[in-house]
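Researcher: Let's walk through a ligand-bound prediction step by step. First, I give you the protein sequence. Second, the SMILES string for coenzyme A. Third, you return the three-dimensional complex as structure tokens. Ready?
Model: Ready.
Researcher: Here are steps one and two:
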Amino acid sequence: MIKQIETDRLILRAFLTTDDEAMFELDSNPEVHKYLGNDPVKTIDQSREVIKKVQQQYLDNGIGRWAAIEKSSGAFIGWSGLKLNTEMENNQINFYDVGYRLIPKYWGKGYATESAKAAIKYGFEVLHLTEIIGTVNIENIASRKALEKCGLHYVESFQWHDIPCDWLKITREEWL
Ligand SMILES: CC(C)(COP(=O)(O)OP(=O)(O)OC[C@H]1O[C@@H](n2cnc3c(N)ncnc32)[C@H](O)[C@@H]1OP(=O)(O)O)[C@@H](O)C(=O)NCCC(=O)NCCS
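Model: Step three, the predicted complex:
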């Protein structure tokens, strides 16, 4: 795992245990979980568990979501980046997906797109991936748009825990 990467406006770095309060602010917000199964966390211990899980993914897989920090303010704005998905989804397993989750006051500034583009570049240039997947609730227009602005395209629709979702993809050749 690299220490951190930078975009124009963001620092993307490994999660720290001290991100727990900011993660709780993010994941306890029902608005954030509207398209994610409507199950926000209830306690900060749940956020601490999530951080531990991601830190373990760094060790096991060499990659996991990154904490996103706004350069101008130094604020934790949420997370973004790649994950090796080891659970069956749309009949696929062990694929790399790009995703993001931001605290609402940072929505609408292009941060999801900016950070995901950097993660995709990292995936192809550093991890030498052959393809990157994006999955999105069909009603989540902002997320869908961000994926498409990063060059991902629609492949098919599927159900995730009874939620209608779309499966998008970008291959290394398309990205080049
Ligand atoms: C999805 C999410 C990360 C988008 O973050 P963001 O930084 O606001 O996204 P961007 O600013 O990069 O915007 C992406 C595009 O969506 C558009 N958009 C944003 N909100 C929108 C909305 N409610 N309806 C329609 N379009 C919207 C933006 O205008 C932009 O398109 P444009 O550049 O053509 O104008 C953010 O809404 C979020 O964290 N949501 C909760 C968690 C979540 O749903 N994660 C994704 C799971 S798949």
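Researcher: And what stands out?
Model: The longest helix spans residues 44-61. The radius of gyration is 15 Å.
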